Amino acid sequence: MPLGHIMRLDLERIALEYVVPCLHDIGFCYLDNFLGEVMGDCVLERVKRMHRDGELADGQLAGPSRGVAKRHLRGDQIKWIGGTEEGCEAINFLLTLIDRLVMYCGSRLGKYYVKERSKAMIACYPGNGTGYVRHVDNPNGDGRCITCIYYLHKNWDSKLHGGILRIFPEGKSYVADVEPIFDRLLFFWSDRRNPHEVQPSYATR
């Protein structure tokens, strides 16, 4: 059986049997060992090169302070890419797999039917206690419905390095802590159902 066909069947099964039920039941889910170490390393090395070459800029705030960088509220450095840029073949491969996963969710996402995505945001927290205070990715109904995060940190120890993503599911009595583990892919609703924060990082994240 061709590899592409196997991959399609696997992605469709993961979407229908895991991603969709988890999003409806608890509002988020994550997949570990998504790309595998070899391909994950290719993505990591490209992002490291962007960081080394000074291609990342301070993240900006949306809402009333739109376009303003306030490091005490949001400490990441970012770059938006489409995946088709020169040297970004591994990133494009990752984005293609994520696109397929979301596509296979199809009409099973409640009122949503995803037809397109924004560019991908490369983000780096440079340590020194930088994080991102509690916020909602899409508080104003701008069309975004699912946030996907792919983590690239190797040998990350959250007890030592911090940097946990904490989700505050709307109407729930609990919080969900997601560690930024290498080759982990996280999905969650982008709207007011999932306020979240990036806790202070004490190593480059």
Describe the structure.
Its main location: nucleus. InterPro entries: HIF_prolyl_hydroxylases, Oxoglu/Fe-dep_dioxygenase_dom, Pro_4_hyd_alph, Pro_4_hyd_alph_FE2OG_OXY. It is an enzyme of class 1 (oxidoreductase). Keywords: Dioxygenase, Iron, Metal-binding, Nucleus, Oxidoreductase, Vitamin C. Its EC number is 1.14.11.29. This protein is α+β, with helices and mostly antiparallel strands. It has a single domain (31-97, 117-198), classed as Jelly Rolls, CATH 2.60.120. 29% of the residues lie in helices and 21% in strands. It has four helices and ten strands. The protein has helices at residues 3-25, 37-52, 89-105, 158-161; strands at 28-31, 57-58, 77-81, 120-124, 130-135, 146-150, 165-167, 176-178, 185-189, 196-201. The strands form three sheets. It has a four-stranded antiparallel sheet with strand order 5-10-7-8, with no helix packed on it. A three-stranded antiparallel sheet has the order 1-9-6, covered by helices on one side. It has a three-stranded antiparallel sheet with strand order 2-3-4, with no helix packed on it. Strand 7 (165-167) and strand 8 form a beta hairpin. Helix 1 (3-25) packs across helix 3.
Structural key phrases:
dioxygenase, Jelly Rolls, vitamin c, L-ascorbic acid binding, HIF_prolyl_hydroxylases, globular, four-stranded antiparallel β-sheet, 10 strands
